[in-house]
TrEMBL record:
Source organism per UniProt: Actinokineospora fastidiosa
Name of the protein this chain belongs to: Ribosomal-protein-alanine acetyltransferase
Gene transcribed to yield this protein: rimI
Family matches, as Pfam families: Acetyltransf_1
PROSITE patterns: GNAT
InterPro entries: AcTrfase_RimI/Ard1, Acyl_CoA_acyltransferase, GNAT_dom, YpeA/RimI_acetyltransf
Entry keyword Membrane: no
Amino acid sequence: MRTAQVRTAHLRREDLARCAELERVLFAGEDPWSEAAFASELDWGHYYLGAYAADRLVGYAGLAVVGPPGDVEASVHTLGVDPDWQRRGIGRLLLRELLAEADRVGATVFLEVRTDNEPAIALYAAHGFTRVGLRKRYYQPSGADAYTMMRPAPVEETT
């Protein structure tokens, strides 16, 4: 899928160093993921996408799906966009593609988001997420709180 000059594709192993670099910028006050953490996510078979502008990674997102058919649950593990590329719809594009994958398998989707990250909270709410919990001191080392948000699985229509 594309938005303006950006296309999405499955995240490539050769982009994991760039993911870790972006993590250090985006989550400097926290415990940013390492290249090895991203590699582990891919090794587990989780669904990861990259957003590319002229073959340069400018965003990434990941979704874990667990459970047997009929009782599937998904979790957005991460979503990040290069600060120079923010406010161009890339985060929305990545989120929509993660949600399409969750819908494909009929999964309810959960995520955590900092309670002070109003743009992300608004993005998630616009895509059907509601707050269902509060995790005190979730982010470390800052001790920032997180909301747990949930989007229900799609309802199958019966005739």
